[in-house]
Task: structure prediction
Amino acid sequence: MEFLVNALQMKKYDSGTIQQLGIPALVLMERAALCVTEEMEREGYLEGQVLVVCGAGNNGGDGFAVARLLVQRSVDVTVVFVGKEEALSEEARIQKKICENCGIKISTNLHMREYTTIVDAIFGIGLSRNIEGPYLELIEWINRQSSHVVAVDIPSGVSADTGQVLGTAVRADLTVTFAYRKMGQLLYPGASYCGKIVCRDIGISAQYFTGEENPSNVFTYTKEDLSDIPKRRPYSNKGSYGKVLLIAGSKGMSGAACLAARAAYRTGCGLVRVFTPESNRQVIQTYLPEAIVTVWEGDSFPEQELMAALAWSDVAGIGPGVGTGEIQREILTHVLTQYDKPLVIDADGLNLLAKETEILKKVRSPVILTPHVGEMERLIGMNKEEFLKDIVNTVCEFAKEYKVICALKDARTVVSDGASIYVNTSGNSGMATGGSGDVLTGIVLGLLSQGMSPFEAASVGVYLHGLAGDEARRKSSAYGMLAGDIAEEVGVVLKAADVTAEKAEL
Result:
């Protein structure tokens, strides 16, 4: 697990390290500059002519220190200061003076020549206003160059909190950041401006002086976190791994039910029962003979059949391909008001829910919602262009208000229970294909059925879904992937965790 911070948190931990631990700011700056030069050398960016562009803040101070260290390595360096002398921070002023004492010429005019590498140390993580005027022109000039571009801490113009581009932003090939990765480096569009992100330790750790183990309530997963998935037990049976009820499918729409059910099985659940119209029976039984199929038919609410299916289950999901008719609305209302076990709502279930969102405040069960951007737009009644400006806060506030777990599916899926926030980094563009969301529903249900807590099942499920998509891309390419490929690769991704567990049993 890796924790992500925003600009305010990072400033707090930076100042705490300086004031409470007593590590001088200039020492941290020197460490940061050394990390940048080391990473530049590792990438082969020290050849030819290097331009270092420095602003007036501490990010500029890092830049001056980088320039000096590069000169000491006999690199051909041009240093340009683009800020105002009176605006220099104390540390930046000292670093600029050290450069001058070392005989390094610092220009205030940019020489429009070709550079092999450009180091961006103009603005740091504290930028909160749009870039304009000469700074905008400078950044647009940098982006037109064929040079390698290295960003110090964060590309200038990217919001460290939201990933939004503040007017314009430097497009970096390499971003060297310090202590913790920033939320805006992982969220889009900022993520597409960072290039390769390397996070280096320079001696800042919140735990040293806060006494808190976690520096933030925002986190992302690494593959080691797959170990959190419940282990298979040597002495067990199909009932040991849970019974999933999937309310899915409508006339002519059996595919979503098939994909979700298969994904639940591939994730390790014991039994899957699909509750669906009679017209889907043959398709589902042919595609997935392992599934139990319970059907309803006619134009009346199938209350008795539904109650029996709900009573049988340990967890339930509703929505994939189910339709938005009156009977489906009655089914959803019944499930929301009567069911008291973990519940996942997706697709048409969300479209029905958008018409009466307040019913969520009456539910008896832990509820996970998995909307894509369009479904979220309908749920909250806000234009997507607006809420995507701060996707993390949007998801967190919605989850808090309705006391649900919300997994907003996007290029960076965000999951929140109103307190903790998970930002997903797995997955790829090949997953932008019909049925991919249905597979996610099945994965989350499979994890819930094995005893995972709802928030953990949603977060790990999203991560596992992305990893399976990455494996499918490796085999089929982003162009050739199908949602069914993602479901099939879930077992491949889990194989490593299974091997680890098998060794423990022996």
In short: The mean pLDDT is 95. The chain has two domains: 2-220, 239-505. The CA atoms of residues 84 and 387 lie 36 Å apart.
